[in-house]
Amino acid sequence: MKIKEFVKYKMLLPVIFVALFGLSLVFDSPSNIYTGYINILKSPSVLISDYVRIGGLGATLFNVATIILFNIIMLKRLGFKMTGPIFAGVLTIAGFSFFGKNIFNTLPIYLGIYLYAKTQRLEFRSFMIVVLFSTGISPIVSFLIFGTGWPLYIGVPIGIIVGTFTGFILPAFSAHTIRFHKGYNLYNIGFAMGIISMLYAVILHSFNVNLNVGGPTSEAYHSELLLISLGLSTLFLVGAFMIDPNVLKKYPHLLKSTGRLVSDFIRDYGKAVTMLNVAFMGYISVAVLVILNLEINGPVMGGILTVMGFGAFGKHPKNALPVMFGAWLGVTITNYSLDSVGMVIALLFVTAVAPIAGRYGVIIGVLAGFIHIIITPLAYVFQGGFDLYNNGFAAGFVAALMIPILEAITKQKPEEDGQ
Prior knowledge:
Blueprint: H1 3-10, H2 13-27, H3 30-41, H4 51-55, H5 57-77, H6 84-96, H7 103-119, H8 128-134, H9 139-147, H10 152-181, H11 188-206, H12 222-243, H13 247-254, H14 265-269, H15 271-291, H16 298-309, H17 317-333, H18 341-349, H19 354-360, H20 362-383, H21 390-410
Helix pairs in contact: 1-12, 2-5, 3-5, 5-6, 6-8, 6-16, 7-9, 7-10, 9-10, 10-11, 11-21, 12-15, 12-16, 13-15, 15-16, 16-18, 17-18, 17-19, 17-20, 18-20, 19-20, 20-21
């Protein structure tokens, strides 16, 4: 297969796997990677658990690479072609493998979805989008095993059973929650998982289980992560022009999309245009951090990769920048501070409500970002840190609050998406 066809067919995901795996060996020795990886697997993994601090950069990149490889193999075995949601799902998994996801706490969730498909007499592949985004709630597995203080002979079976049960109920649950925000929350499954996590948090709290086991972050590898982010963005930029030298002329068509679910940019605009958008979203994420003099740690790196992933599934500069500005404004004029890593990653994850700006314009987008940044810390308290997509949980409430009012004021029909 020629290089051009390979880039177009795979959207560079195998290249990213090889690059990150190779970099893991550059930054650390195999023995240190092994030790750090075991520490990652044994961590409670709830928000905010920085794997860079827990296992080191080499072990974290190894964790990311193995998760990417596992999902690429699964998708290939099931015969999937690359789409916007699938690309976003894989890159989101890669991003959150910097702070909360690992192969150990992922598999029970996948198993639960597989069992649900079997009981419904449906193909497992028909739930693939849910599968890819489902592991946002995987910390519940690690927490029950390693974060409660219970003996392993109690924690291991309970963690696996609860994880499998969570995966089992998630497909049906997420199908209903999209009605709550009408597709204006790109992290719909994060909203569904937030509600489930809230239930788990209440149950554990009633048994006096301490839920505050998230640790501090490490900014020791800021420069390395910055270069990796820029390198990945540039990789997509080069790939876009390799596929289509005239891609820049076609890009404005994508910017007209509202981004509302389900916006598959690969299907609607092609892989070259989508890859260009992925690159731009990566550059924008890095630029925001550099302008505000914010350092990159594991969670922030996860935010960058997630924003890039959704560059194929709803986000673009025109609908993302207003909500990011609104979030920054919210932090600036309230008691919140960018000294909190939660606020920093919220500046990136606020783009979950980017479709609101895409549909209703810049001013409304700024307002949506402002409301989102206020709600996000409260959402974390409710769900106990088990939902890695906490901003998706918050974004669901933002959209549910704003969209009915906006539809009434503008007198637009709910089913219109402006695309």
